[in-house]
Design goal:
heterodimer; A: about 350 residues; alpha+beta; two-stranded antiparallel ribbon; B: Formate dehydrogenase/DMSO reductase fold; 10 helices; disordered N terminus; binds iron/sulfur cluster
């Protein structure tokens, strides 16, 4: 793997090729790869994530990522806290007092529930349903309007102590493998490079730990490992891709929340899934990072979320910082000229 | 997109992503999710009323969105300061060399060499793998200011070295003069590229000032070099240094004022906490140093030396202020989320207006990046 990596880094230009922002249909080609395979990525459908952290574990196992701290944070079930040099998949846990659309017990998902699932959701009573559990198993999707004491229009059901019910969101976060990756753009050594699969990978034998990529990433993904000094992040299992295998996290995910494949195909699948969820009465469902017109030219790893991105710790409208770089250089050139002219003028005056 | 109301109406105040105060700590970890991560901070600046977007936003347990820059303040802020000092000194050296101000020329040349040597040491010291510093010259990448900067230093350093050594030893005068001129050509670039270095990141308080920051840094570099000149050269020769101090201070203070006005919310970290104190100290030291140098520096050697020290300290305080403000802005999700939200809202408004304007015309790409110059609409 290291060989291919080093080679690709050496032969292909390390920049994202011409464009600094905007849509770029052929990222690998723009980076100098000829006859490259299709661009691949992840579609992480958080609506089916069960928070098992199999992805976190599989990633650590396969990539031999060291321990990332043994802390109990009190942030729901999240103890790894966020993406870092030693956490390449991170499962976020969000506890909210919000209804979860039709993702309530006893309701069928999918087209079968269809429009029927959308109505009457407000007054489904799980406690009543739970009482019935012993006697007869309620059919999925059974009419749920028989719960007493649930005011319509409010979050349902209400617990005996008056609390409204909890919505528990889980989402597995990862490096976005941006179309315009700021980390790659700013890396001075060429350690970060674009692979033939359109992904972004650090060559650890070249990285000198300058740390520039860390503040450049608009998503807070890549980080420097303290004892080691170098920068580390998800490689989208570059070694496995080369062998025709899917990344370890996608392989391990028991619910197919993490889906791996050619990006075009994933985008189609994601659009269908959002439509399905909307039809099923989950209006919160939305895609994040799939738009090639967004500030980073679209993500190679994009998501289906059930709340605003910032609730998951993701930026709502990230922009690759190098979009403004030409303007920065121009301003710097004028500033340098102004400095030279100003100091020169100080000698021009009186000879004292 | 349907935006549900903020989910936790509870009165609990989160631990508070308090930029500078909570250095290194994960802020507000005990806060319930989805809660407004930001405290309502309302402080009016004198003379102007910035449009403060509502401080309500959602965050993931108050955790920062960006990863904290791993650069060490002493190394990198020190590097920014020394780079400016070196660049400015090379300009002064060339001017003094050409106009026969021997002592001013020599001290500026030696100052430039010393500053650029120390800054290179700081840069290498900050690397996670200092032994691999030579990888900086493995590629030349225009998209990486650090790569461009490395090449710039590789060219400028030897010139500054030759210029200083030939002056001190009196050998190879012709080459010395050429090197002095060369260093003066590259010096301003060394001083201004460092602004691009930190602006080319996702850190709000560094990036949002990218238009004015180069002017802030070159002004500060000129003032610092002038300070060194006043400190080292006799008053009869230091006239240009005194004027350069005024020029540099005016450029720095003026550009800083414009920058903070245009940065919107991202200017806030530059005004509060420790970064704010550093910025205010820098302002006072720079202005006082330049004024005192001009008024008293011609008559009193002591006044000149004190002005010089004030100017150097002011320049250093500015770099540390800007550096730490950036770190504080990266540590508080508010500075990442609020301007981006505002941008999205503005874009949605724009799109709605377009739709209202003509029914079928809304097929354009629809995002506001076309102009390339849309800062945060705060
Ligand atoms: S998410 Fe960050 S680390 Fe990953 S490719 Fe994009 S800029 Fe680089
Ligand atoms: S830390 Fe390594 S990967 Fe990151 S920018 Fe520096 S050399 Fe490149």
């Amino acid at each position: 793997m290291t060989d291919t990596a080093a080679q690709a880094g050496d032969t292909g230009p390390s920049t994202s090729g011409g464009l600094l922002h905007g849509a770029q249909p052929d990222v690998a080609g723009a980076a100098g790869h000829r006859d490259h395979p299709q661009r691949v990525g992840f579609f992480t459908d958080t609506s089916v994530c069960i928070g098992c952290k199999a992805c976190e574990v599989a990633c650590k196992e396969w990539n031999a990522v060291p321990e990332d701290g043994l802390e109990l944070t009190g942030m729901s079930y999240d103890n790894s806290q966020g993406l870092s040099a030693s956490t390449w998949r991170h499962v976020a846990f969000i506890e909210q007092r919000k209804p979860l659309g039709s993702q309530e017990p006893g309701v069928v998902h999918g087209p079968a529930a269809g429009a029927g699932g959308a109505e009457g959701m407000g007054d489904f009573d799980v406690f009543a349903a739970a009482e019935r559990l012993g006697a007869t198993t309620p059919e999925p999707g059974a009419p749920a309007g028989d719960g007493p004491g649930t005011p319509t229009g409010e979050i349902s059901p209400i617990a005996p102590d008056g609390r409204t019910e909890l919505r528990w969101l889980m989402a597995s976060d990862v490096c976005k493998h941006c179309t315009h990756a700021a980390c790659l753009d700013v890396c001075p050594t060429g350690s970060l490079f674009r692979t033939e699969f359109g992904t972004v990978v650090v060559q650890e034998d070249i990285c000198n730990g300058c740390g520039y990529c860390v503040p450049a990433c608009p998503y807070g993904v890549i980080d420097q490992r303290e004892d080691d000094g170098r920068a580390w992040k998800c490689t989208l299992c570059y070694d496995r891709l080369g062998a025709g295998m899917e990344p370890a996290c996608a392989k391990a995910c028991p619910t197919d929340s993490i889906q791996f494949g050619p990006l075009d195909e994933l985008r189609e699948r994601a659009a269908a899934r959002v439509a399905q969820l909307h039809a099923a009465g989950v209006p919160d469902a939305r895609l994040y990072g799939e738009d090639p017109e967004d500030g980073v030219g679209g993500d190679g790893a994009f998501f289906l979320l059930l709340d605003e991105p910032e609730a998951y710790g993701m930026p709502p409208d990230p922009v690759v910082t190098t979009r403004d770089l030409p303007s920065m250089w121009r301003h710097a050139a004028v500033a340098a000229a102004a400095m030279a002219a100003g100091v020169a003028a100080c000698f021009a005056g009186r000879r004292r | 997109m349907s935006t549900p109301e903020p989910n936790v109406p509870g009165p609990v105040t989160p631990g508070g992503p308090g930029g500078a105060e909570t250095d290194g700590e994960h802020p507000g970890r005990t806060a319930a999710t989805g809660q407004g991560g930001g405290r309502h901070r309302r402080r009016r600046r004198r003379g102007e009323q910035p449009v403060v977007p509502e401080a309500e936003f959602t965050s993931y347990y108050g955790m920062p969105i960006l990863n904290r820059p791993t650069w060490k303040a002493l190394d990198i802020a020190g590097y920014l300061f020394l780079g400016g000092l070196a660049g400015g000194s090379s300009l002064l050296a060339a001017g003094a060399h050409a106009t026969g101000r021997r002592v001013l020329a020599r001290s500026a040349k030696i100052g430039a060499l010393g500053a650029i040597s120390a800054s290179t040491v700081a840069l290498i010291h900050d690397l996670g793998r200092p032994g691999r510093f030579y990888n900086m010259l493995r590629v030349a990448k225009p998209t990486s200011p650090m790569s461009m900067g490395s090449w710039l230093l590789a060219a400028y350093g030897p010139l500054a070295g030759v210029s200083a050594v030939t002056d001190a030893t009196g050998l190879f005068r012709r080459s010395g003069a050429a090197a002095t001129a060369g260093a003066a050509v590259l010096g301003p670039a060394v001083a201004s590229y460092t602004a691009v270095l930190i602006a080319d990141t996702a850190v709000p308080s560094w990036h949002e000032g990218y238009r004015e920051l180069p002017f802030v840094f070159t002004g500060s570099g000129a003032a610092a070099a002038a300070g060194l000149g006043m400190l080292a050269a006799p008053v009869e020769q230091a006239g240009p240094a005194r004027r350069a101090a005024v020029f540099g201070a005016a450029l720095e203070l003026g550009a800083t004022a414009v920058m903070t006005r245009r940065m919107g919310l991202a200017a806030e970290p530059l005004e509060r906490g420790r970064p704010g104190a550093l910025m205010r100290a820098s302002k006072v030291l720079t202005a006082a140093g330049a004024a005192a140098g001009l008024l008293a520096g011609r008559r009193s050697r002591t006044a000149a030396a004190l002005s010089g020290v004030a100017l150097l300290a002011g320049s250093a305080a500015l770099r540390f202020g800007v550096f730490t403000a950036g770190v504080a802005s990266a540590e508080d999700p508010k500075y990442t989320v609020l301007p981006q939200r505002e941008r999205l809202r503005a874009r949605a408004r724009e799109r709605r207006r377009e739709h209202a304007g003509d029914g079928a015309g809304g097929t354009g790409s629809g995002d506001g990046t076309g102009s390339g110059n849309d800062g945060p609409a705060v």
